[in-house]
Design a protein that fits this description.
The structure is a homodimer of 482-residue chains.
Chain A: H1 2-9, H2 18-28, E1 32-34, E2 41-43, H3 45-64, E3 68-69, E4 75-77, H4 85-91, E5 96-101, E6 104-112, H5 117-127, E7 136-145, E8 159-169, H6 172-192, E9 199-202, E10 214-221, E11 227-237, H7 239-244, E12 247-249, E13 255-257, E14 259-266, H8 268-277, E15 294-298, H9 305-321, E16 326-328, H10 336-345, E17 350-354, H11 356-361, E18 363-368, E19 371-378, H12 382-407, E20 409-411, H13 415-424, E21 428-433, H14 437-447, E22 450-455, E23 474-479
Parallel strand pairs in A: 3-7, 15-16, 15-17, 20-21
Antiparallel strand pairs in A: 1-2, 4-6, 5-6, 7-8, 8-14, 9-10, 9-22, 10-11, 11-14, 12-13, 17-18, 18-19, 21-23, 22-23
Chain lengths: 482, 482
């Protein structure tokens, strides 16, 4: 027992220091390691498998909506960044530059992509001639680099992995439809696969993507009340089409600029997943994304071990056949208590215990990661019960996270209230806003919170701007963000 | 009909100019495009999908043999390249260097990975402490960069995509077993999935991987008689373990260096696939890797169009349900002849025609890409017949390629004969070799051919070195190579 306690004590408690808790958990659950390159992490197998599961799910959704994958060079000529003014201003400070290659200085230095609108814009201008070439619907899974000053594993790293969709359309209507479709795919994926509730809305002008006409986002709340932008979808208008000459002959034989979109989610989702569901016992993974959905742990005295293990392996094989991602831990030199803690810490959604008495009664014991009470289940119903329990855990985890977000969201009408909110605790402040940049700036300067988005379904109905008291043009969510 | 002829004429004939044929085919089949960055190509959706199919197949094989995926930073500190002497000499000339980032010059410049033995070696030294941590079996799917002087789409590009496996073991026996296991997985994949026969063997000392003890390869023959190294597996001994201090306490509690391996295949396989199977009509893809395995083309007069199309869509849906990757082309404004050429050029293995008479007879017409005779098949047997035909096409394509390789392989006993062989035609020369570097070098200088490998199952039984006449120590395959 003392071993079990020591084990748990290695993770800082969330209430004590949330940042340290986060680092403790991701290190202890073996999700990542620091690398010798500033701000770059190693995605270890247990962390990378979470990303692989996200990829498989998202990739299927992209393909089902007519997108195809491609791969573009990661090197971007310096001149490309001069073509779209906002884009260069937004990204230039964060670019790494290749200046030598093959033993010689390069004639034109090459940036490593922070995002690929420029390279893809250049290629699309060659591929698109006629309205018959539209819509062009392409996605890319890739590594990108942004040389960030402050980094945090998964949430903000110099090199990270993501997907970036880039589409071109005949007109604004079609491009905006695509922008919204992808935003909804992200919402659906994050809410129903990762069990993370989000606020869906539009970014304010100052927070939009550099080069976009409109940026839309889904915003999630971490357990420390801070926000994570979990996905963005941009309507780029004809900005990049004009910069890169993506022109086509329309149905009336007139030369037009294409309307483009881009949209992406990244490995920062892994960070959000941990910060939304994790607790003082460690990681907690929703069943749909969990690399291991259930672990079987045989228990009981040594003299029954062989018989219990034999039955446990039969059940393992039954569950595997049913497509459940299940593992067994029958190591004789590790105590059951230690194993219980271990798999709870690693966030395995369901633990299945089987001992000599369970053998006699033809049953097993279920313990869900998110609610520790035990439940007895007949071995004959095992596959059904596991599937059913995993569905319940998935739904409960979403409900728990949603309740947390609601409890830490508040309608705020005065600036003093807003300041007090971010001074004493965190969360989402729903307020009215006049639309002026100065008011938005003042919130940031005096509270550290930024506007997350203008929700499509606002919680608040404030008539006045929380800062200046002028009539509110938008309802906005403010929060401190990662 | 004249349109059809024009269409075909756009591809240079193989016999006329093989290199031009290759570029014509990959451009016309829409597999790639050139990018504005020297030596970097864009993998367009039709080309990238071939790679996705390879990835899915290989990834399953890697996981079935206990490997897990991870992701390591692509930036490698300059100092890492100083640690393994052969490795630095082999790769330094081809590295691109990041010297500035985030608006400032870097303290230590960063290479972009040409391969990751150094970075992974560094991380393994932190992760491996005891024999209990071994074997460590990790694979990475990634982009890598080698700043090549001469580039060729897919076969040799500055940036390319690949997988690199990196494993660490307790001893030489276990590491060599892994090296051979992965080599055999590559052979199996290339022969049975890509239908490309290969020569399996060991690289000579001068051709081995920079830093390896032994390199093993599979070598394929293109239709111009030149070789492509289709995959390599390296036993690295303790070279990288010593350079990066990958040490562990063994079962006797003694500190030992780990024995490591690495192995990889890359997007150059796409180039090999095209050059092995393609012909004057264009691309030819083996069914297992083909993004589209069968295309249904409704034919006949306009007045029957609706009825024929309706039936064609029923068959489409039947085949899709059976898991066959099938497409329909019912465009009314394009002639059947044009479509036939189009899908032949794109390498679709099976064409299924259906017209009014076929409707009456309850049949369809099959035309295989690799043998143009037509065959009538009952609609009631469609799924079985398509599956059966695809298996046959896969097998026939392998046999055809194997026959080609055999016909262009020759046992050679004298240097004059060797010179003549590479002067007048190309292919694989199977010869004896004394093992001396000078003899190997002389072959390269005077014939342009390089040693491909020392086959495990040599075709030749030469008693003397083809260059110096001294007793042969090895049987070697020489060929001009991409």
């Amino acid at each position: 027992m003392s071993k079990d306690k020591d084990f748990v004590r290695e993770i800082t408690r969330q209430g004590e220091d949330f940042s340290r808790w986060y680092i403790d958990v991701i290190k202890k659950a073996d999700l990542m390691d620091y690398s010798p390159v500033r701000g770059c992490i190693v995605f270890k197998p247990d962390g990378f498998e979470i990303w692989e599961n996200c990829q498989r799910e998202l990739d299927a959704k992209f393909k089902a909506t007519g997108h195809r994958n491609a791969y573009f060079p990661m090197f971007i000529p310096e001149s490309f960044f001069q073509k779209e003014k906002e884009h260069v201003e937004g990204f230039n400070p964060e670019l790494p530059w290749v200046t030598e290659a093959g033993g010689e200085p390069l004639e034109e230095k090459l940036a490593i992509r922070p995002t690929s609108e420029t390279m893809i814009g250049h290629m699309y201008s060659k591929w698109i001639q006629s309205y018959r070439d539209l819509p062009l619907l392409i996605n890319q899974w890739a590594n990108v680099v942004r040389w960030e000053k402050r980094t945090l594993p998964f949430l903000r790293t110099s090199e990270f992995l993501w997907q970036e969709g880039h589409t071109a359309h005949e007109d604004e209507t079609d491009a905006r439809k695509e922008t919204m479709q992808m935003l909804d795919i992200y919402r659906d994926f994050v809410e129903n696969f990762l069990a993370i509730p989000v606020i869906v809305g539009q970014k304010t002008k100052s927070e939009k993507f550099a080069g976009a006409v409109d940026t839309f986002s889904i915003e999630a709340m971490m357990k420390d009340g801070r926000a994570v932008q979990a996905g963005t979808s941009h309507y780029l208008g004809t900005n990049f089409a004009q910069a890169f000459e993506i022109k086509f002959l329309d149905r009336e034989n007139t030369l037009q600029f294409a309307h483009t979109t881009s949209w992406g989610v990244s490995t920062r989702l892994i960070g959000a997943l941990i910060m939304v569901h994790g607790d003082d016992r460690g990681l907690a993974l929703p069943p749909k994304v969990a690399p291991v959905q259930a672990v079987i742990i045989p228990i009981g005295p040594a003299k029954f071990r062989d018989a219990v293990n034999a039955r446990a392996y039969e059940l393992l094989s039954e569950l595997k056949t049913a497509g459940i991602r299940v593992r067994i831990d029958d190591r004789p030199d590790v105590t059951p208590g230690w194993k219980f803690n271990e798999y709870e810490m690693r966030g395995v959604p369901l633990r299945i215990e089987i001992g000599p008495r369970d053998m006699e009664n033809g049953q097993v014991v279920f313990v869900s990661r998110n609610a520790t009470e035990k439940r007895t289940v007949a071995q004959s119903d095992l596959v059904f019960e596991v599937n059913d329990t995993l569905v319940n855990i998935q739904n409960e985890m979403f409900s728990q996270a949603k309740r947390f977000m609601e409890e830490h969201s508040k309608e705020v009408s005065t600036f003093d209230e807003l300041k007090a909110m971010f001074e004493y605790k965190r969360g989402f402040a729903h307020t009215g806003w006049c639309g002026a940049l100065e008011c938005e700036k003042k919130v940031k300067e005096e509270t550290g919170a930024t506007s997350r988005n203008i929700p499509f379904q606002p919680l608040s109905t404030q008539k006045c701007c929380v800062v200046c008291g002028q009539p509110a043009v938008h309802q906005v969510v403010f929060a401190r963000a990662y």
